[in-house]
What we know:
By secondary structure, this protein is an alpha/beta fold. It has 11 helices and 13 strands. Bound molecules: 1-O-phosphono-alpha-D-glucopyranose (G1P). 1-O-phosphono-alpha-D-glucopyranose binds at residues 114, 134, 137, 174-175, 194, 206-209, 233-235.
Amino acid sequence: MTMTKKIRKAVLPVAGLGTRFLPATKAVPKEMLTVVDKPVVQYVVEEAMDAGIDHFVFVTGRNKGVIEDHFDIQPELEDTLRSRGKTAELKTLEDMLPAAGATSFTRQQAPLGLGHAVWCARDIVGDEPFALLLPDMIMRAETGCMSGMVKLYEKVGGNIVSVGQCDPDLAHKYGIVGKGEDVDGGFRITEMVEKPEKGTAPSNYFMNGRYILQPGIFEILSRHERGAGNEIQVTDAMLKLADAQPFAAYPFDGETYDCGSKDGFILANVAYALDRSDIKPLVADELKRLIGRA
Ligand code: G1P
């Protein structure tokens, strides 16, 4: 067992404009679109809470104030629910609420890339390892993805990147890692490349949006070096950090839904609806009927 510092803080970059979802995202942040009855971002916060993380750092932008409201109390609503005896609904609100003082909000003032968004959280995170969760991705599994990553981190220390396996023809859309020797519950990463040219990816293991990173990443990100798409990339900074520190991959055993894409968002809604005993019968029957007709 390696001596590791506990992962206490999670960074959630939520500054993106959500142009792929217009007009839905004209006034509503894409992270607040709902999968069944919860905003996408809440699934991600709950995954981090389940992993024992207790402080949530949101890197926001203009037009995202409603995310801050969502993770705060709503006294009028709660009073009304209480006076109407709606205890189940009240408990739903209580369970999702981070403790007072356990959320921080900072703004990414310009869309310079994911690496820049993470760098914006440097003062709030400080000198400790942290989790990074990309809120477009919802991870559905028995054991939450971040919980599994924290367990691997406690064994091997260093930096951990969650990976899935993609169709090799789609590797150019993601950050891809090279596979090295197995470690207990994962494998060593030999290389990392952001959005490789078609046909050049070192494997089909793609980074699926969950990371545990050491604070040394901030110094590298502060150089503001541009990479793929002329943006400041986390993957490039991780590659540099890997010169000095170990990186392991956590192969996530579950389903990943990219709610930043329309098909992923719809599929997430279907999958989570079928998990719910109250609505599953109707939804399943109607899906079968529609598919029979298609
Ligand atoms: C980002 C990361 C990429 C990762 C992907 C997962 O890319 O840079 O490494 O594979 O998220 O969704 P983006 O989707 O922001 O282009």
